[in-house]
Amino acid sequence: RCVASSKRGSELSNRRRMLICVFYVTMKHTISATDLARRLGDILGRIRYRGDVFTVERNGTPVASIGPIPGARAATLREAAAAWIAGGAEEGFAADLARVEDADSAAADPWAS
């Protein structure tokens, strides 16, 4: 995407305009099926907000490609930040943490008599 921008200063007069082009580069990655399963949320976020494309391998053999839907618009930085801020914790997450903490106890001393 290219936009026109005026630049003031000794290099350019006020009437001259400079064209600034921003190029979006799609990153291509290779990932194992196990790693995809472990990091699915992160991978989907990278696809949605950065436009990354992943080749999924099982036992070193490519089996699938996962990437943005053709024609879908990549999210802007503002949209990505708003989604991150609005995300918050899942319902019940605090209760799950409290339950784990309550169940966790110090190991008994095997040397006590």
List SSEs in N-to-C order: EEEHHEEHH
Strand order of the largest sheet: 3-4-5
Please identify the structural class as seen in this structure: alpha+beta
From the alpha carbons, calculate the radius of gyration and give it in angstroms. Answer: 24 Å
Low-confidence stretches: 1-23
Shape: flat
Average pLDDT value?
75
Main sheet summary: 3 strands, mixed
Strand content: 15-25%
Q: Please give the alpha-carbon distance between the first and last residues.
A: 75 Å
How many distinct beta strands? 5
Number of helices: 4
Q: Helical content, roughly? A: 25-40%
Describe what you observe in this structure.
The chain is α+β, with helices and mostly antiparallel strands and 113 residues long. The protein has four helices and five strands, in the order βββααββαα. The protein has helices at residues 33-38, 40-50, 77-87, 93-103, and strands at 2-6, 17-21, 28-32, 53-58, 61-66. The strands form two sheets. Strands 3-4-5 form a three-stranded mixed β-sheet. Strands 1-2 form a two-stranded antiparallel sheet. The longest helix is centred in the middle third of the chain and has 11 residues, at 40-50.
